[in-house]
Amino acid sequence: MSDSRPIGVFDSGIGGLTVVKALRDLLPNENIFYLGDTARVPYGPKSPETVQRYAVELAGMLMGKNAKALVVACNTVSSVALPLLTQKFTVPVIGVIEPGARAALQATRNRHIGVIGTRATIRSGAYEKALRAADNDIRVSSRACPLLVPLIEEGLLDDDVTDRMIMRYLEPILADGIDTLVLGCTHYPLLTGAIARALKRQIMLVDSAQNCARAVEETLDRQSLRAAPPTRGELHVALTDAADNFLNVARDALQLHFGEIELQPLP
Ligand code: DGL
Q1: Is 185 tagged catalytic?
Q2: Angle at 86 between CA 1 and CA 12, to 5 degrees
């Protein structure tokens, strides 16, 4: 039994392509339909109610593409809308929080984990909840880093302005004594190099993209939803508004290949 329907992946914009990259590497036979809400990005400063409404609309659009599973490639959406999406849609819904929290728990030695993300993600406390649900004694130091998304979108991946901002955001949580840091935003894997440079000591970095891809693999296997080898899956990218320069930044940094971008206006 094989299922060639696409995996529907969505994000507030382009950052979720880091999850697509991890999915392409891990599950090369799968077809992927990616939808980025470039018309309304960023979600990070918005209220949970607004993000939930947007998430249901995007997931509905992907169901219209016959998605066999929904991957929420956005920490902000995953932190406030996962239960709602799971309740509204019958296909499996996989977010980035649980897989990231699980990986962080495996990585930490001193049981003190740092989490960085957008304001909405940090305000939701979703990582703390997921971490404490597994281990009540775990210590968590979180920090919202609202300026990192615009710096990444400007392509300043290797720049001292970005390095200085990273240090400013990380100093307090490093001083707390974390030994593991969750990159709780789908843009941040693009800054792995800069973040690793900024850390003066050995800190384990947990990337939500790779851990999410592993969770998708497990779910597809469990529910017999895998596409058959040996065909290489296709990647379609659709956006709710015209792409800006960040699409080129992400495509180059991730070395992703896809054809024409489809414009998918909001209903
Ligand atoms: N994709 C969002 C996330 O992972 C970051 C961009 C935004 O604020 O919409 O949290």
Answers
A1: yes
A2: 100
